């Protein structure tokens, strides 16, 4: 593989390997690291259809017995029902702690399989093989695993770090353009969080990035994983505010997802609109110099991302944002840019300023 970086948390260190590899390399690495009694491959139907047979063959050809856990694609699979089905399937397969669970897919399968790995027999080793851009740059790194409840997203979960994250940017060639663009919203977020050079690269090379050449995407995914790994290292369990800065664009973004019912707007699309709105908010209250919101709007458009907020009443916006996990008592908290490359948390934003941004 072309890149190797380590994630160090309070509990463990694990590698992220990035490069246009072969599934046989993944199989060799899994065999060398774990010598598993069995590999349980978890995927949704779409990803199982595209890559399941090849991954299975690679593992079986080096003597690893493989079993499959599948679910329908989409957020609704991140449920206690599917988790229960998978726990029961693992039990029926007589899976023991010497088995390895490989999550092959986007953030839905990564979060669901991660949660099942964390809880079955009080913990199975987990390998993340992310296949969406969002999962490669964000959800596969950092150990947050969860399922949803009818009352809200990610309400039941824990921290369960993978033992290995294996990233092949070539699998992004089969992703829909809409899902690819949604992942780019999180890439843009990292540029605001840490890296001036990254923002310039995104602005000047959009054609190259959108062509999804694995040689272009490899360094981009690597840079994002470096930033995520560094943030996770500083704040593995989201207790000191560092990890919460990853929520830039997400206070408004989560409200949009909630208000649109989670089925019309993709997470990255909501974050794109949220970043532009929150940058305008930062400008309005004098946290950052004028110009950042316009710059973000231009770069989001380069990647076909929406930037205009949907219309809701102030009461709807307020009640959706008051449910955010970052809030302190009844004050809405934001992770806002001070400048490009620096985001800080605040719960001191005047309510009139928030009103003027979402109701303009
Ligand atoms: N754990 C974390 O830290 C974290 C961070 C961000 C988001 N998330 C979670 O991630 C989830 C969203 O993840 P997502 O955006 O990856 O969605 P997803 O997993 O639903 O994948 C999106 C779609 O792309 C398809 N797909 C996946 N890989 C493909 C490929 N290579 N080619 C073709 N199609 C492919 C899937 O079948 C699915 O239909 C949400 O549940 C969110 O809560 C978790
Ligand atoms: Zn996000």
Provide key terms for this protein:
single chain, about 350 residues, alpha/beta, Rossmann fold, seven-stranded mixed beta sheet, binds zinc ion, binds nicotinamide-adenine-dinucleotide, two-stranded antiparallel sheet, 2 domains, Dehydroquinate synthase-like, alpha domain
Can you tell me about this structure?
The chain is an alpha/beta fold. It has 2 domains: 3-174, Rossmann fold (3-Layer(aba) Sandwich), CATH 3.40.50; 177-358, Dehydroquinate synthase-like, alpha domain, CATH 1.20.1090.10. Helix content is 48%, strand content 18%. The chain has 14 helices and 11 strands. It has helices at residues 23-34, 45-61, 80-92, 107-119, 133-139, 177-194, 196-204, 206-211, 214-234, 250-259, 267-284, 292-302, 314-321, 351-358, and strands at 3-8, 13-18, 39-44, 66-71, 100-105, 126-130, 144-149, 152-159, 164-167, 334-339, 342-346. The strands form 3 sheets. Strands 1-2-9-6-5-3-4 form a 7-stranded mixed β-sheet, sandwiched between helices. A two-stranded antiparallel ribbon has the order 7-8. It has a two-stranded antiparallel ribbon with strand order 10-11. α6 (177-194) packs parallel to α11 (267-284) and α10 (250-259) crosses α11. The radius of gyration is 20 Å and the shape is globular. It starts with a strand and ends with a helix. The mean pLDDT is 95. The structure holds nicotinamide-adenine-dinucleotide and zinc ion. Nicotinamide-adenine-dinucleotide binds at residues 44, 46-47, 50, 73-75, 78, 105-109, 111, 131-132, 134-135, 138-139, 142, 144, 153-154, 171, 174-175, 179, 267.
């Amino acid at each position: 593989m072309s890149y190797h970086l380590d994630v160090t948390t309070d509990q463990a260190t694990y590698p992220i390997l990035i490069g246009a590899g072969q599934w046989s390399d993944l199989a060799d690495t899994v065999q060398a690291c774990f010598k598993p009694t069995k590999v349980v491959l978890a995927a949704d139907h779409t990803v199982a259809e595209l890559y399941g047979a090849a991954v299975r063959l690679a593992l079986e050809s080096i003597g690893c017995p493989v079993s499959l856990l599948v679910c329908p694609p989409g957020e609704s699979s991140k449920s206690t029902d599917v988790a229960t089905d998978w726990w029961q399937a693992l039990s029926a397969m007589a899976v023991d702690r010497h088995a390895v669970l490989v999550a092959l897919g986007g953030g839905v399968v990564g979060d669901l399989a991660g949660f099942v790995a964390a809880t079955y027999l009080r913990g199975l080793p987990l390998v993340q093989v992310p296949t969406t851009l969002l999962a490669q740059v964000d959800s596969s790194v950092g150990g947050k695993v969860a399922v949803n409840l009818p009352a809200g997203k990610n309400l039941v979960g824990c921290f369960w770090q993978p033992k290995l994250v294996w990233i092949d940017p070539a699998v992004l060639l089969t992703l829909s353009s809409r899902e690819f663009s949604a992942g780019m919203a999180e890439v843009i977020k990292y540029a605001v969080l840490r890296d001036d050079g990254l923002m310039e690269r995104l602005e000047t090379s959009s054609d190259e990035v959108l062509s999804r050449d694995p040689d272009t995407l490899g360094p981009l995914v690597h840079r994002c994983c470096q930033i995520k790994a560094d943030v996770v290292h500083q704040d593995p369990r989201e207790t000191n505010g560092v990890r919460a800065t990853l929520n830039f664009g997400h206070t408004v973004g989560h409200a949009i997802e909630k208000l649109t019912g989670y089925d019309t707007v993709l997470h990255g699309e909501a974050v794109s609109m949220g970043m532009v709105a929150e940058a305008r908010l930062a400008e309005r209250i004098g946290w950052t110099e004028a110009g950042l919101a316009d710059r973000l709007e231009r770069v989001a458009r380069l990647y076909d991302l929406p930037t205009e907020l949907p219309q809701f009443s102030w009461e709807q916006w307020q009640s959706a944002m008051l449910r955010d996990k970052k809030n302190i008592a009844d004050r809405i908290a934001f992770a806002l840019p001070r400048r490009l490359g620096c985001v800080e948390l605040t719960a001191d934003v005047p309510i009139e300023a928030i009103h003027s941004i979402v109701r303009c």
